[in-house]
What we know:
By secondary structure, the protein is α+β, with helices and mostly antiparallel strands. It has helices at about 5-15, 15-25, 45-50, 55, 70-75, 130-180, 185-215, 225-245, 265-280, 320, 340-350, 375-380, and strands spanning about 30, 40, 90-100, 105-115, 120-130, 220-225, 250-255, 260-265, 290-300, 305-310, 350-355, 365-370. Adenosine-5'-diphosphate binds near residues 277, 310, 328 and 339. It catalyses: ATP + protein L-histidine = ADP + protein N-phospho-L-histidine.
Amino acid sequence: MNEIPADALASISGDAYVREALALVPISILTLDEQGRILMANPETAVLFGYKCDALIGRPVELLVPDLQLDNLVLLRGGAFAPPGFHERTALHEFSARRNNGTEFQAEIGLKAFQFDENNVTLAFIIDRTERYELERHRRDLAHLTRVSTMGQLASSLAHELNQPLTAILSNVQAAQRFLAADPIDLAEVREILNDIVQDDYRASELIRRIRAVVKKGDLEVASLDLASIIRDVVLLVRSDAIVRGIKVTLDIEGDLPPVCGDKVQLQQVILNLLLNAFDAMNDVPPTDRVAAVTLARESDQMICIAIRDRGHGLTADKLDKIFKPFFTSKPQGLGLGLSISRTIIGMHRGRLWAENNIERGATFFVALPVGDAAGQAESR
Length: 381
Ligand code: ADP
């Protein structure tokens, strides 16, 4: 191998060389002084933010990243400026960055504080994450759309269920009016009627709460969740649909299960989808066989497993995997998105979703989720 002459090495190792190299890097790189003022910005920074490189020199970095004020910067870059040769992995932080024209975009920012020629310098690199966030937003919108469409299937049975307490409230109010017109007024009877009205009102608002919880559109909310109560809520939501279809839903929930960590709305969406699929699969079976059995139990020390078992037409061997692909549907009105979205959701929760045929008849869908609370997850990040 040919050796590189010492003078050639010197010429490629100086400040100019570093500048040349930084100019070629396809991500935004800046150096900052101790006060967070920009000492150097590479051309990619100028392109990304719509400034001329020179126009940035001496300006505070919060011009580009408004939340990177000095105190925040000091916090994130860490206290000490590392001596030369001290190489440690840099954590990335999510921020909103602002272009010269005022538009904002999502960025990941890494900060590295080090000593260079006895100066304390912070190296900052800014990665434009617009595409990733857009993709994430589209995925969330799609999940929301399928959730709303799934709820659409339940609309008429839910309207019917809501009508029951409303009708009961009306007839109770009419009865109370009659009692109040009587002389003497039977106060005990009126009190009882008012209690009934409160109960019916509670029933109606509980149903509305459950519907709103599922169709809600919002950001991911990670929390410690009690899977048992999530399942119960969804089962109550599909109760009237099950009655209309002549399906019995059974619940078998192991006691004292630890929480899982995740987004409640998304997990509800998965269970709702699996239950409605189980109902659809039993459309053509005799009424006595229409049973959807939901179980929740520990699978191991680390996993909790939900199983939704039906006695429907089951899955042919080729379908076992195909059904999880987007747009695969065997239903005339189907979208074919429910299972693929459900699998993505469960994957994001570091769990597993799969299907098996039952020995006697029908299929069982399993969802295995890792045990863990939100605080523990935050610590392990
Ligand atoms: P969709 O319900 O809109 O068809 P899904 O992704 O939820 O979309 O389901 C895809 C397909 O998987 C269904 O059309 C059906 O053929 C099959 N499938 C889902 N669940 C079951 C089940 N419990 N039993 C038999 N087949 C099922």
